[in-house]
Amino acid sequence: MSRTPLTGTRIRERRARLGLKQAELARAVGVSPTYLNLIEHNRRPVTERMLSVLAAALDTRPSVLAEGGEPLLYEALREAAAEPGTGGDPPAELDRVEEFATRYPGWAMRLARRQERVVALERAIEGLTERLAHDPQLSASLHEVLSSVTSVRSTAAILAETEDIDPDWRARFHANLRDDSERLAHAAEALVAYLDAGSERDAGPAAPLDELEAWLAAQGWHLPALEAAETPDLDRIVATAPELASAASRDLARAFLDRARADAQALPLAALAAARAELGDDPGRIAARFGTGPIAVFRRLALLPPEPGRPAPGLILCDAAGAPVFRRLPEGFALPRFGAPCALWPLYRALTRPGLPVAAVMEVAGRVPRRFRSWAYAETAHPAGFDGPEVVTAGMLLQPAEAARAPGEIEAGSTCRICPRAACPARREPSLLEAG
C-alpha cells in the first residue's frame, strides 16, 4: 500500500476527532508517546504492520490513513486553486491541498461543493454560448422573426406615409400586413417553444445522434449481446431502448449495431485482450494483427467492457465535412456539438491525408489541463462503384496521456470563445474568459 507524506497528519486528525489523547493511542498500539508524536508529525515512516494496528485502534481502514479517503475532494480543491486570481492575490499552495483537506475537512468539503457548482454553471454557460453562436435551428428561427418584423414594418410605413393609395393596392397592403403579422406570430411562438425546451434539451437528447449516444452511455458503452456466438436480435434491442425515441435515432442505432457486430466478429474479445497485452493500445499494430482497418479498431476499443484501473477511451468519428457523426468523449475532453474546435486538429489533419495515420499528444486547456494521446485515421470507400461518389470516414481515438509534457504536443481547447490560451496564434475570436 502506498503512503503519502501526510499519513502522520491523517493519523493525528483522526485521533483528535475521536477525542483520544496521544498517550492513550500510544498505549493502545504499544509504542511510546514520543514515537507516536514523531509519526503524527511525519518525522518517522509508518510500517505496514503499524499502519494496520493504528487503523484498528482508530476504527478506520489503513488505506484511509495511508492515502487519504477523498481523492475526488483533492482534485476539486486543486481545480479551485487553479482559478485565476484578481491580480494581487498570492498563488495558492497546491502542494498543501491534502494537508488542508485533512486538517479542515469541513471547510474543504464546502469549498469542493462550491467548486462543483461553479463548474456546473460554467458548463451551462458554455452550452448556451455555443447555442447562441452556432445552433442552426435557433439561427433560422431568429431569421424568420426578423424577416417577418421587417415585412410588417415596411408595409406599415408605406400605408402610413402614402396618402393617395389606390383602394385596390391599399387592400393588397392590408392583406400583406395581415399575412406577415400571422407569420410573425407563428415564428415568435416557435422560437419561444424552442427556447422553453432548452432546459429539457440540455438535460437530455435533442437530436437523433444525441439519442444514440445517450442510449450507448446508459449501456456503459458496451453491449454484451454483440459478443455472443449466436446472432443477436438487433431489431428487438433497438425497439426496446427507451432512449431511442425517434425513428431517425433507431435507424442510426440499427446501422451502428450492424457495424459493431461486424467489428466484434473481426476482433473477438479474448483475442483482442491478448493482442493488447502484447502490443499495447497502438491501433495500427492491432489492425495489422487482425487484418482490419484502423477505424474498426477505434470503434472496437471504444466499446469494450470497462476494466478496473484502465481509463475509458474516447472516440470521435466524422464525415468528409468534418462534422462529428459519433462521439464518446473521455473525462476532461470538452467538445462542443457545433463549430470546429482545435481539439479536433488531428482528426482534420487525417482528413487531408486519407490512408495515412496521424498520432499526436494534446494538452486540452482547462483549470487543470488534461493530456491525451490521440490516433487519427481517414479511410475512403466507393459504395456506388468507381463512377460513384467517394465516401470518406475519419476517426480519432483518445487515451489519457502522462502528465509530463511531450515534445511537439498540441495545445488545444474546446472552442475559442471559452479558451483561456490568450497567446494562441490560431485564435479566431476573443475569449469570454479574457474579460477583466
CATH-scheme architecture of the domain at 310-434: 2-Layer Sandwich
- Low-confidence sequence ranges: 199-205
- What is the radius of gyration? 30 Å
> How far apart lie the N and C ends?
46 Å
Query: Which sequence of SSEs, written as H and E, runs from N to C?
Result: HHHHHHHHHHHHHHHHHEEHEEEE
The number of helices is 18
Shape: extended
Q: What is the strand tally? A: 6
Structural class: alpha+beta
Instruction: State the strand order across the main sheet.
Output: 2-1-5-4-3-6
Q: Could you describe the largest sheet, including whether it forms a barrel?
A: 6 strands, mixed
Level-1 CATH class name of the domain at 310-434: Alpha Beta
| CATH T-level topology of the domain at 310-434 | Beta-Lactamase
Average pLDDT works out at 81
β-strand amount: 5-15%
Fraction of residues in H or I helices: 40-55%
